[in-house]
Write a structure and sequence with these properties.
Strand order of the largest sheet: 6-7-8-9-10-11-14-12
Radius of gyration: 17 Å
CATH class: Alpha Beta
Strand content: 25-35%
CATH superfamily: Ribonuclease Z/Hydroxyacylglutathione hydrolase-like
Oligomer: single chain
CATH topology: Metallo-beta-lactamase, Chain A
Shape: globular
Helix content: 10-25%
Distance between the termini: 35 Å
Length: 268
C-alpha cells in the first residue's frame, strides 16, 4: 500500500508539470524545500492575501484553514466544533470518537476525507480544490477498550497552499517512522495534540516535533488550560512559546520563525 502512495505522489507531480502554471503549492510529500527565514505573522482581519493562509483554532482538534483563492477546510470535522455559518469545501476526519468525526455532513461540502478506510485497508487521499491541496499519511492507533493496534486507523493530513505545508497530526498514538517522514516531506506548521493521555505522552509529542522539525507548532486537543501550560513548560528547554489573544493567525512562508516556536491559540 505504501507503493500506492508513492505512485499517487508521482502522478500528481507529473500532472502538475503537464498542466503548466499552477497555484504555488509547497513541496509537501517530497523531500525538498528551503528553510523558512521569517517572524511570526500577527493576526490580521483583512481578506487573505495571495501569499498567506489563515489558520483559526475552532476547538479541540478542529481548525479552519482559508486560502487566498477562497478554498476552506476544517480538520477533525465533528458535530460540536464547527462555524455556524460556514460550509467548508473540504473536511478531514478521524474515527477515534465523536469529537473527531461525524456522518452528518451538510450539503455543499465538496470533499469528505476520512483518515481511515471504511472498507478496510489504507485510506489514500490526494485532492486539490482551487489553491488548496490536501493529502494524507496513514498511521496506526490503539484499539479502544482493550489491547492491540488498529492498523491505518488514523491519518496525518497535510494542507498545501501559498507555498506552505501545514500538517495536522489528528489522533496520533505513536512516533513516526522514516517512511512516514518521507511521505510527509518538509512541514512548516504542525498542529499537534498535547493532551498527554488520549493520544500520546507530551514527551512523545516533543519527539515527533523533533522528527518533523516544523517552524511553528500549534497545540491542540486539550481540555483544561493547565495541560497546555505543562506542555509549554516541558518544551521550554527546546522551543520558545508565545500566547496569542485571538484564535486566528495569518501565516506565510516569509513570516515564519527561523527556528521552531510554539504558538498557543485560545481554545480547547
Amino acid at each position: 500500500m505504501r507503493v500506492r502512495i508513492w505512485v499517487r505522489r508521482l502522478f500528481w507531480l507529473a500532472l502538475a508539470a503537464l498542466a503548466g502554471p499552477a497555484p504555488a503549492f509547497a513541496s509537501c510529500g517530497v523531500i525538498a524545500g528551503l528553510p523558512a527565514t521569517r517572524q511570526l505573522a500577527a493576526l490580521e482581519t483583512a481578506a487573505v492575501e495571495p501569499d498567506r493562509v489563515r489558520l483559526t483554532f475552532i476547538g479541540h482538534a478542529s481548525f479552519l484553514i482559508e486560502t487566498a483563492g477562497g478554498a476552506t477546510a476544517i480538520t477533525d470535522y465533528n458535530g460540536y466544533n464547527r462555524p455556524p455559518s460556514l460550509v467548508p469545501d473540504i473536511v478531514t476526519m478521524n474515527n477515534a470518537h465523536s469529537t473527531h468525526y461525524t456522518d452528518d455532513i451538510p450539503p455543499g461540502v465538496r470533499h469528505v476525507l476520512r483518515g481511515w478506510n471504511p472498507a478496510g485497508g489504507m485510506a489514500v487521499h490526494d485532492v486539490t480544490w482551487r489553491d488548496l491541496r490536501v493529502f494524507n499519511v496513514p498511521t496506526n492507533v490503539r484499539q479502544w477498550g482493550g489491547d492491540g493496534t488498529r492498523q491505518n486507523g488514523n491519518s496525518i493530513f497535510v494542507f498545501a497552499a501559498a507555498d506552505l505545508c501545514i500538517a495536522h497530526l489528528s489522533h496520533i498514538h505513536h512516533t513516526l517512522t522514516e517512511t512516514h517522514l518521507r511521505e510527509l516531506g518538509p512541514i512548516d506548521v504542525l498542529l499537534a495534540p498535547v493532551d498527554g493521555a488520549w493520544t500520546m505522552s507530551q514527551e512523545d509529542v516533543l519527539t515527533v516535533i523533533g522528527q518533523i522539525k516544523p517552524r511553528l507548532v500549534v497545540p491542540m486537543h486539550y481540555i483544561v488550560a493547565d495541560v497546555v501550560q505543562r506542555f509549554v513548560a516541558k518544551a521550554a528547554p527546546l522551543y520558545p512559546a508565545r500566547f496569542q489573544d485571538q484564535p486566528a493567525v495569518l501565516l506565510s512562508r516569509r513570516m515564519l520563525p527561523r527556528q521552531t516556536e510554539i504558538l498557543v491559540l485560545p481554545g480547547r
